[in-house]
Write a structure and sequence with these properties.
Helix content: 10-25%
CATH architecture of the largest domain: Sandwich
Structural class: alpha+beta
Largest sheet: 8 strands, mixed
Distance between the termini: 156 Å
Number of helices: 7
Number of domains: 2
Radius of gyration: 53 Å
Strand content: 15-25%
Number of strands: 14
Amino acid sequence: MRTVFRFLVAHLLVMVSAQQDDAEKLETCNVVCNCNSGEKAPSTPIQRMNQGPPGKVGPKGEIGVTGPKGLKGDTGVKGEKGEEAEQLDISQILSAIDVGSCEQLFSTYNFSVDGFYILARESANRSFEYCQLQNGFMGIYTCQAIQDRYRTNARNSGYYEFQRPDSAPFRVYCNFSQTPAATEVHHDRMIETKILSSCESNGCFSAAPDYDAKGEDLEQILKNSVSCRQYIKLRCQGVQLRRNEVSWWVSRDGDKMTYWGGATRSGYCACGESNSCLDNSYKCNCDQNSESTIASDDGYLTDKSKLPLREVKVGDMSGGNEMAWYTIGKLECFGQL
């Protein structure tokens, strides 16, 4: 019996040992190969030592859904009150929207503060210009002085007001298209005018222009300008000019001037100076005195000490076909002394 029992025990131990060997082999297969699943097997120390290079980075994933908006933060502390804006600067900027001239600033929008403004002229470009809206340019008597003081050649031609101390402003026209700038004094007789009088005696008809500047204002313009001139013209039919001293002009001091525009010698017109009159036996075209021909004598008066002319005197107009037309130009002064 004991022999049989020992045999059975030994046989049982052999069977148990064989099952354990099979289980260890199966476990080894699962760990190394994961033969039954297809999943990556856990790495062992030996496998990590022989690991290959990393693979390429995969494509970027899609952007995730935007998260919910966060809660509103706390209101910040109120800042200190800033300095008050300068009213003049704001008004100047606002006025640039539709304003094309300094005159429009004054007449349409009632601006009355002198200063630089942005103006929209006829072109699409805007310009930054000084507008004198309240009083005249104090102590300035030429347009060249304005250009020199504000250091710009881009000022727009137009009417400006000058002012002597303790006197009322007076108006001039500044022509900045010329070099040097021209200071023009306009008056009420600058277009050609037919003489309706039929008087005969010498100088019986008189035409006296009313200038925008007078007296000392005019003298300051002349005194501060480099040069001045004034255009004068007589168109005539059967009317004499310097022949027999029929017609002449009067200086600002009241002197009877015996030469005509374009000449400097007494008794001469421009054609007489150049020996180019219609009849060279006379010194003026009108002096041929033809009632069948319309002639003319014209030119600039340039003696600054005599300008502007105060009056034009014409005679010899009583005949049926005798007639005359006169033109007195603006006073033009150039530069700045």
